[in-house]
Amino acid sequence: MPLSDSQLAGMRGRGANFLTQSWVIQQSTRTPDGMGGWTDSWTTAGTVSGYLEARRPGFFAADVMASGSQVVVFTEYTLYLAHDATIAPGNRVVRGSLTYKVEGVIQADTARGFIHAKLTLES
Known about the structure:
Blueprint: H1 5-16, E1 21-32, E2 38-55, E3 64-67, E4 70-73, E5 76-82, E6 92-95, E7 98-106, E8 114-121
Antiparallel strand pairs: 1-2, 1-6, 2-5, 3-4, 5-8, 6-7, 7-8
């Protein structure tokens, strides 16, 4: 049995209480450089409320990788956004001094009411 509009609105309203962090969504803009190439620049597409969750590294081969003489540990991040937020793979999100690349987006579904953006840390 599908949710009614009022049930869905109530659920989304309660869920918004968990989206307490402010995030800046940026999109890349390419400008021709006049020599056959281009320059990438980032422009702010909007500011949204969200919640970041980090998946703890485990014992999976994909979590740890050798890079030269160092071992690098990867952490996967999921950013939860409201169902009506606009975000796409290739965008990046910024909070404070940290910048994350958007690797993928799982659109909102009725049961959860959130958009899930899979992120990797850039800086």
